[in-house]
Amino acid sequence: MGKLGCIGYGAMGSALIAGFVSAGFSTREILVYDTSSTARDKAKQQGFLIADDLGQLEECDYVLLAVKPQQLETVAASWKQERRDQVVISILAGVDTKTLRAALNREKIIRVMPNLPAQIGRGVIAVHFPGEISDDEKQFVLGLLQKTGKVFEIREELFNAVTALSGSGPAFVLLILEAFAQAGVMEGLDFRTALDMAVETMVGTAEHLKAQKMHPAELRDMVTSPKGTTAAGLLVLEDEATRASIIKGIRAAAERSRQLQEGK
Length: 264
Known about the structure:
Rossmann fold, elongated, ProC C-terminal domain-like fold, 8 strands, 264 residues, 2 domains, alpha/beta, 8-stranded mixed beta sheet
């Protein structure tokens, strides 16, 4: 197993690296580069090797690129290497493989879009493998990503939709959970109890839907009695265009992802 490099040891970079360790990498086989002394200290304390400059990543067969999209130019300017067989795993939102190839002067670019729950091994991980990636490289990277959540192989032209749905999705879910808890408080529950109940309700419902493999409407009908409390609440939510608002929010996020991809 060749050494693995990581450029950017922030929240998502460190979460994915933790998954890679679970997949079999030793911390002493992972070389971390970050301009932040705090991130470097954290990686060092966790047992990883620290790179003083990007040139040291030449020895790595695979490199996780986990910086912010706006930092790509800075990384590209400093990361001058001639190793053409190195595989780059990029999690930069809104930056396509064509742009990455041009900036980094590399052919083997795998594009990945993880989301927040990857930090606890429950992420939704979208991945695109271009034709330059061999079957062995593909299977190796899939094995790594599967330790951080459920992996979906997605065509690159759909990555803006992925960014909006699963990438931004946790923020939308958290907004809904907060509204649930606030409603519980207004009806007399303390906030902590209301939030815990809201979280367990959402997680349990999602797990039940997953287990039953039903359409959401079918499961919803099972808890909606004629003239009951659920029916009364659903009527208000439909009246307030809740469903349409969520759809519009996700589509707005997808459009913003497209704009970022175009440099706007």
